[in-house]
Amino acid sequence: MKTEILEARTDTAAGLANIERAAACIRAGGLVVFPTETVYGLGADGTRAETAEKIYKAKGRPSDNPLIIHIADPQDAALYAETNALYDRLAEAFMPGPLTVVMQAKDSVPMTTRGGLSTVAVRCPAHPVANLLIRKAGVCIAAPSANLSGKPSPTDAMQVAEDMTGRVDIILDDGSADFGLESTIVKIENEGSLTLLRPGRITPEELEAAAHVPLAISDAVTDRLKEGEAAPSPGMKYRHYAPAAPVTLLDGTVEQCIAYIGSIGEEKIGIIAYDDDVALYQSAFPNAKIYAFGKKEDELSQAHLLFALLRRADKDALVHIYAPLPRKSGIGLALYNRMIRAASHHILHL
Ligand code: TXA
Ligand code: MG
User: Fold this and answer.
1) Do the beta carbons of residue 320 and residue 219 sit within 8 Å?
2) H or E segment at 159?
3) How far apart are CA 150 and CA 144, in angstroms?
4) Which ligand gives the minimal distance to the CA of 109?
5) Global pTM value
6) Is the CB of 331 under 6 A from ligand 1?
7) Which CATH number fits domain 4-221: 3.90.870.10, 3.40.309.10, 1.10.10.10, 3.50.50.60?
8) Residue 130 contacts residue 54 (beta carbons within 8 Å)
9) Is 36 in the pocket of ligand 1 (CB under 6 A)?
10) Of all atoms in ligand 1, which is nearest to the CA of residue 121?
């Protein structure tokens, strides 16, 4: 398959024409990668089983791992899912935006799209290109992140092209994704119960304030699934984000981390370091690859950089990667959730 990379913008005639072409491609049953405010998505018509099959194939994803359907208007959720007053409060507070809500599905969403589940995940992206693409396509767009299964989600069109050239019809390029980690996912069990399945830009604190119901946090957000335990979200059971080299998360002061890494004495290591620690690591380990991760308190920068750094670290052919352990609150929880997966839960408290 020939893959076209098209510049997508809503403020130029050429950019708009490219979005029109991509929307026609979706209607014709094609595959279009598009930018969102979280990460790039690999989209197709969300109302047809055969287009969902094409997505699973292009991504190399097991077909029991369901797709999120993307809508242009929060009210359109009712076309595909059993919405309720709790959904309306979440939609009012956070949509369009980086929130995905899992609810009971309606028959309009094929079983293939929802991985055989009775529920469906719905998201209304705020990114102008994504939003216009869905509007012009005239159908909901089923889309997982646009990476090959197991790789970090792509945050710019170059990363998409690495994984998806020859596998999709069109890649819409709008530069670097704003947030850089995937959307927050919550599940509505009933009017009075909400569960966090995947942390993201919208934090647990913000969700509780808007939902007016208690928020349960699925154990799988921070812990390893127990042997034989069913995953509340199918994606949780698959290996994710892991670079080829083992990753260890270090919980300690920079001095403790330097002493520990020095005591191991490996060649070809990579260190993901807060900006203020970069110089210290460089002088302690002149042969190491040091990746600057933003300031310690600047979790938005870290979220923006994480997946690109993991991809870069993979290309640098390292034997071991060290990274700091994020905190478990606010946006830190989203970083924690992605980084413990990259590290296969390997955390060292120094
Ligand atoms: O930010 C995002 O959410 C991006 C952009 C493209 O919108 N999409 C994304 O999709 O991250 P994906 O497929 O890579 O991750 C969606 C996760 C998967 O782990 C999947 O298992 C879970 O959502 N999921 C989808 N439908 C579900 C359902 N009905 N119940 C529970 N989990 C579900
Ligand atoms: Mg994904």
Assistant:
1) no
2) helix 157-164
3) 12
4) 1
5) 0.96
6) no
7) 3.90.870.10
8) no
9) yes
10) 26
**In angstroms, rounded to a whole number, what is the distance separating the alpha carbons of residues 306 and 38?**
12
Q: d(Cα 199, Cα 217) in Å, to the nearest integer? A: 9
Cα-Cα-Cα-Cα torsion 220, 226, 228, 232, nearest 10 degrees, comes to: -10
**Does the beta carbon of 185 lie inside 6 Å of ligand 1?**
yes
Can you name the CATH fold of 247-349?
Rossmann fold (3.40.50)
Each residue's pLDDT, cut to its tens digit, for the chain (350 residues) gives 999 999 999 999 999 999 999 999 999 999 999 999 999 999 999 999 999 999 999 999 888 899 999 999 999 999 999 999 999 999 999 999 999 999 999 999 999 999 999 999 999 999 999 999 999 999 999 999 999 998 999 999 999 999 999 999 999 999 999 999 999 999 998 888 899 999 999 999 999 999 999 999 999 899 887 777 777 777 766 666 778 899 999 999 999 999 999 999 999 999 999 999 999 999 999 999 999 999 999 999 999 999 999 999 999 999 999 999 999 999 999 999 999 999 999 999 99
CA distance 232 to 225: 10
**Closest residue to atom 13 of ligand 1, CA basis:** 144
Distance CA 184, CA 173 (A): 23
CA dihedral defined by 82, 56, 237, 186, rounded to 10 degrees? Answer: -30
